[in-house]
Amino acid sequence: MNAARVEHLPSGVRTAADYQQIARQRLDETPWHYLQEGSGEGLSVAANRSALDRISLMSRPLADVRGGHTRLQLFGQTLEHPLLLAPIAYQRLFHADGECASAMAAAAQGGNLLVSSLASMPLEQIASASQQTGGQPPWFQLYWQGERQRTLRLAQRAIAAGYPVIVFTVDAPVKLASLTLPGDIRAVNLEAPLTAAPVAAGQSQVFDGWMAQAPNWDDLAWLRQQIKLPLLLKGILHANDAERAIRLGCDGLVVSNHGGRVLDGVPAAIDCLPAIVETVAGRIPLLFDSGIRTGRDAYKALQLGASAVLIGRPAIWGLASAGALGVAHVIRLLRDELEATMALCGNPTLADIPLQTAS
Ligand code: FNR
Q: Whole-model pTM above 0.70?
């Protein structure tokens, strides 16, 4: 990245939503639509928001919250707050500094990020951008690469580059959206783009083409054997799948509907969290994403049992608006809102937030 690039924060920004307006003006139609779109009719995108809006917060005045903080331990790392950056593909579509800007922002804010398999910058460069900003090693988001050995080679490259946690995304095996990338932007860490397996006459492009290259539970069991580091699954909505993942030895889950971008009509991810929390019963940490736009939303996920949340589109609104500074500002705004919510709800630390169970 160009270290000489100087960027300024736009004036008058008070919330992540303000960055959405700026990003809308700055981005061309194609990246904007790629960023914002949901699948189908956008039902699950809307459901993520309306479900979070329906959850209320209970204020608890007069609590003594002096000495409060948002610090936590997660997979061996100490994070200043529970707001991680979600893995988002092709970040150079949104800003020339791409994933390195996000890594620097997460590091500067004492948090961390998940780097996508579809990152548009080399994994090693992103890890060193984080390290040079004083951050901890980022986590790697793994997409299945059509077959076992190719998938393992990708994970091993990330592990060799110092990524200490592997997050295996399992909810997006079928490529429904087709994005035409500009010539200079591609998934630089992949050996070659995946294409659907050829199908014979009478076979289905979905079942015998794309899905022939999708992972299954046996592949997960195999992957678990290969990876000695913490292995999380991202994209779990059903409690039975959470149970099966634990039995196969997964170390954590990200409860997520991929921001409403895969199967339109799945429930709001937040509505799936309580049943999974009940099933998992504290055996492994649960992370949450899909629809978080404010620190109050983050608090709602934490009170339902998530240990941390991932921030998707809002971070990219910041990136498109002001590069690393914009992403860092989005994280800070959400953290400020989270702190205020914790204080007003009477909880000085994350551990003090009472668990709301499914009623
Ligand atoms: C994503 N997401 C995603 N997830 C993943 O595991 N690997 C990836 O490469 C991507 N790429 C990606 C691109 C874009 C443009 C978006 C918006 C999302 C999903 C992402 O990690 C996260 O689950 C959602 O973005 C969370 O929802 P919100 O916060 O955007 O509502």
A: yes
